[in-house]
Design brief:
With about 650 residues, the protein is of the alpha/beta class. Helix content is about 30%, strand content about 20%. Helix 2 crosses helix 5. It has a seven-stranded mixed beta barrel with strand order 21-22-23-24-27-26-25. Strands 7-6-3-4-5-20 form a six-stranded mixed β-sheet. A five-stranded parallel β-sheet has the order 17-16-15-18-19, covered by helices on one side. It folds into three domains: about 260 residues, Aconitase, domain 3 (2-Layer Sandwich), CATH 3.30.499.10; about 140 residues, 2-Layer Sandwich (Aconitase, domain 3); about 180 residues, Aconitase, domain 4 (Alpha-Beta Barrel), CATH 3.20.19. The chain binds alpha-methylisocitric acid and iron/sulfur cluster. The site of alpha-methylisocitric acid has 14 residues, from helix 2.
């Protein structure tokens, strides 16, 4: 039996366990990345482990999220990350150099290698054949220290692409179609591999758009083969030596196959407020729009920007529309300037933003009240834009540009002139905004620069014998980490200040939740299906931990969030019968009887007593031996300290 691309990489990196689907496996991590919003915490955790120098082949710290700098906090954090990177052997991508995923793809991605990043869109580098996964900051810290990274051996999904996209239909429309078919929970526990004749028509940046937004499927990761097109991309980046061919075996076995004929696809959009709420632009109809934003790690490559420039050439943005454009990296920005396309964008009336995440994470450019905003981004969760009633639609750069001129939702295939843009033979190479770390000999001279916003992370305690607490919150399906721990310009600067952040926990669902936690001192959260989807932010676990949350009981969890809960020492449990969700109400007094014994003995069932109603409910406790040990120790940091 042959192997899929992902199985080949896993096999070559396997350190613990067997490649049996559904079983826990430990793999060696070659590269790590962090961004600044999750990075401060990840580096504090790395520091706490006491490892002097990273043990990975390449670790890079990026500054791309918190670049608004409305107070001292962000700038202090940048200096902290820069100094700690220098000391511990980590490359530092300075603010202005671009979005982590775009820059990593351009300058550091290597086919066949493993990468974990403290950001859920790390699978972007799957576009070139890397096994690239999003993870919590603590997992990244452990990997930097040379520790094994654990995942559940995923099932393999093959997306077979045939045919060729019609003009003005884009890679974004492919991933929107996959989301329409599989939904935001369709990828949980799976790796999505792309193949078929159709992939030969897609460049690496287009493939990266697809693997990037595979995060929205809840997938462990997504991957394309490393083929001739990948080689050409690396050669254009002056890195041909990093290329190794990596293809699936012809007899590789997939658990699921999805067929997509590219020639049948139409420009599409994900409607508010979920990336899988997909319709064609034609179905949406010519609704009036207020804002268009082009950029983010999904669609900010040179190719995307050049296509936008072609559509905007000689035109003016509609008077009722504000158009913002953020190129993904300094390389993209610089090349746009050099070839004159930047002038075209400016002339059309675009508001050019710095190459960073910016509006994607609510860092500026929030739309007007109830404003309709078309974005080339990957997430349109309610409130994420910074405007509570903003209506965010996710579209391709082509649809965005065509609509910006028209002032209403416009299907770009109705544009008359076709555009022809190709990937350059050589990209502009200038890594002057990537600071290499200090040498081993000089590392001791580097002083770590800490600002007053950095507060210690919450203390965790070993698991108690019984958890007796109230259900302090009950929420529904598909709760995102943006619900649990919102981001945005006002809150993001405090990512290294858990006590401050705690005031905003679940604010969108229930403003009183933090107060209830403070009054009750400890509690349990009840959730529905796919709880914790979206971002990798471990703050969505650390903040509830700080607020005294001991266990989260749901119908099912998203992968990274469940791992983050365990790492924080919070018990993730699921209802054996989903209907039992109805047997718990907010404020019920609950008890997880003999929970320590349950975990110690390896039992996969736990008993929940609802003392308010008298019901006894059976819960699944599907934890591996290692996860049990982490929970017993009170989190991964304690566990790592105990186990060296
Ligand atoms: C996001 O897109 O939600 C973020 C902001 O990039 C997060 C990381 C974070 O919350 O810092 C992610 O995707 O993991
Ligand atoms: Fe940044 Fe948005 Fe990408 Fe997250 S999804 S890394 S906030 S650009």
């Amino acid at each position: 039996m042959g192997y899929t691309i992902a199985e080949k990489i896993i096999k070559a990196h396997l350190l613990d366990g067997e490649m049996t689907k559904g079983q826990d496996i430990g793999i060696r991590i070659d590269q790590t990345l962090t961004q600044d919003a999750t990075g401060t915490m990840a580096y504090l955790e790395f520091e706490a482990m006491g490892v002097p120098r990273v043990k990975t082949e390449r670790s890079v710290a990026y500054i791309d999220h918190n670049t608004l700098q409305t107070g001292f906090e962000n700038a202090d954090d940048h200096r902290f990350i820069g100094s700690i990177a220098k000391k511990h052997g980590i490359y530092f991508s300075r603010p202005g150099n671009g979005i982590c995923h775009q820059v990593h793809l351009e300058r550091f991605s290597v086919p066949g290698k493993t990468l974990i990043g403290s950001d859920s869109h790390t699978p972007t580098c799957g576009g070139i054949g890397m096994l690239a996964m999003g993870a919590g900051g603590l997992d990244v810290a452990v990997a930097m220290g040379g520790g094994t990274y654990y995942i559940t051996m995923p099932k393999m999904v093959r997306v077979n692409l045939t045919g060729k996209l019609r003009p003005f239909v884009a890679a974004k429309d492919i991933i929107l179609e996959v989301l329409r078919i599989l939904t935001v929970k369709g990828g949980v526990g799976k790796i999505v591999e792309y193949g078929g004749e159709g992939i030969k028509t897609l460049s690496v940046p287009e493939r990266a758009t697809i693997t990037n937004m595979g995060a929205e499927l809840g997938a462990t990761t997504s991957i394309f083969p490393a083929d001739e097109i990948a080689r050409q991309f690396l050669s254009a980046q002056n890195r041909e030596e990093d290329f190794t061919e990596l293809l699936p075996d012809s007899d590789a076995v997939y658990d699921e196959v999805v067929e997509i004929d590219l020639s049948t696809l139409k420009p599409s959009a994900a409607l508010p407020h979920s990336p899988d709420n997909v319709k064609t632009v034609e179905e949406v109809g010519p609704i009036k729009i207020d804002q268009v934003l082009i950029g983010s790690c999904t669609n900010s490559s040179l190719l995307d920007m050049l296509r936008v420039a072609e559509i905007l050439k000689g035109k003016t943005v509609h008077p009722d529309v504000s158009l913002g454009i953020a190129p993904g990296s300094k390389q993209v920005f610089n090349m746009l300037a050099d070839c004159g396309a930047l002038g075209v964008l400016i002339a059309a009336g675009a508001r050019i933003l710095e190459c960073a995440c910016g509006p994607c994470i609510g860092m500026g450019q929030s739309p007007n009240s109830a404003g309709i905003s078309l974005r080339t981004f990957n997430r349109n969760f309610e409130g994420r834009s910074g405007t509570a009633d903003g209506q965010i639609y996710l579209v391709s750069p082509e649809t965005a540009a065509a609509s910006a001129i028209a002032g209403y939702f416009t299907d770009p295939t109705t544009l008359k002139d076709d555009i022809s843009v190709t990937i350059p033979e050589k990209f502009l190479i200038n890594d002057n905004m990537v600071e290499p770390p200090a040498s081993v000999e000089d590392a001791h001279k580097v002083e770590i620069l800490r600002g007053p916003n950095i507060k210690p992370f919450p203390v965790t305690k070993p698991l108690e014998s019984v958890i007796a607490a109230k259900a302090l919150l009950k929420v529904g399906d598909n709760i995102t980490t943006d619900h649990i721990m919102p981001a945005g310009a006002k809150i993001l600067p405090f990512r290294s200040n858990i006590p401050f952040l705690s005031q905003f926990c679940f604010r969108q669902c229930d403003e009183k939740f933090p107060d209830r936690c403070v009054i009750n001192k400890q509690g349990i959260i009840i959730g529905g299906v796919n709880y914790g989807q979206g971002s990798s932010r471990e703050h969505a676990a650390l903040v509830p931990l700080y607020l005294g949350i001991k266990a989260v009981i749901t119908k099912s969890f998203a992968r990274i969030h469940s791992a983050n809960l365990i790492n924080a020492g919070i018990l993730p449990l699921t209802f054996t019968n989903e209907e039992d969700y109805d047997k718990v109400s907010e404020n019920d007094e609950l008890e997880l009887t003999d929970i320590r014994t349950t975990i110690e003995t390896g039992s996969n069932k736990a008993v929940l007593k609802n003392k308010t109603t008298g019901d006894e409910i059976t819960l699944n406790c599907n934890l591996s031996t290692r996860q049990r040990a982490i929970i017993l120790a009170g989190g991964l940091l304690n566990y790592t300290k105990e186990n060296g």
